[in-house]
Design goal:
53% helix, elongated
Length: 232
């Protein structure tokens, strides 16, 4: 019996050596493949050119909307038109601030002011690659209009402007990758489509419906589109 113990001790498996902290971790591959280290997680994808272009074009686009909205208080007597202008200011001014801050975080300078000379509305080119920007001539007519003439032109220009913004945002949703800019674009699509529907309702109440006829160049206030109630 005493001779059995040494034999059993000799047959016992040796204890595994302690693992070294610097030992490589080997991930087994599929049968027949060489072993390779585990794949590292991919870094989050950063902004792409489409995101930057969206911000740099939407900022001046929004600024022109603010300019048009700022004319309403002294030129319209319609509370619904005033409410449209107020919503433009309250909605788009904060969006401009967000996009400017985002561009600065990338080391880019936000664009200065909008340019009214980037389109010819007589040929159907509305500027900003067709995204509904008003020409300087249209803004001049808006500044000089009063009452119903202002309301009609304001709604026509602002509906077209909002439709252009929706188009710009849709392009960002197709091509952009930055989460903040894509969220901004989705807000523009949903918010401005609602505003377009509201403005069309005001147009119908006024008995105009100019934008429903899809006129690229709105009528000059005081001529086309006047009804008998406007005649002195």
């Amino acid at each position: 019996m005493l001779a059995v113990a040494p034999v059993l001790a000799a047959c016992a498996p040796e204890a595994a050596p302690p693992a070294r902290a610097d030992a490589p971790v080997i991930a087994p591959g599929a049968p027949g493949q060489s072993e390779s280290p585990p794949a590292r997680p991919r870094a989050a994808e950063g902004p792409v050119a489409a995101d930057v272009r969206f911000a740099e074009e939407m900022i001046p686009h929004h600024r022109q909307a603010l300019e048009m909205a700022g004319l309403a208080a002294a030129r319209t007597g319609d509370p619904l038109v005033t409410a449209v202008a107020d919503r433009v200011v309250n909605g788009q001014r904060p969006e401009i601030a967000v996009m400017e801050s985002w561009l600065r975080s990338l080391g880019r300078t936000p664009p200065p002011a909008h340019d009214h000379s980037t389109g010819d509305h007589s040929t159907g080119d509305h500027g900003m690659s067709g995204y509904g920007m008003a020409s300087e001539e249209e803004l001049t007519r808006l500044r000089t209009a009063r009452g119903r003439a202002f309301d009609t032109l304001f709604l026509t220009l602002m509906i077209r402007h909002h439709e252009g913004a929706v188009g710009m945002a849709a392009l960002e949703l197709r091509r952009g990758r930055d989460r903040a800019m894509r969220t901004m674009a989705q807000d523009v699509v949903s918010g401005q489509q609602i505003e377009i529907a509201r403005m069309r309702g005001i147009e119908r109440r006024l008995g105009q419906g100019v934008s429903d006829k899809c006129c690229p160049s709105p009528p000059v206030p005081g001529t086309a589109g006047r009804d008998s109630s406007d005649t002195a």
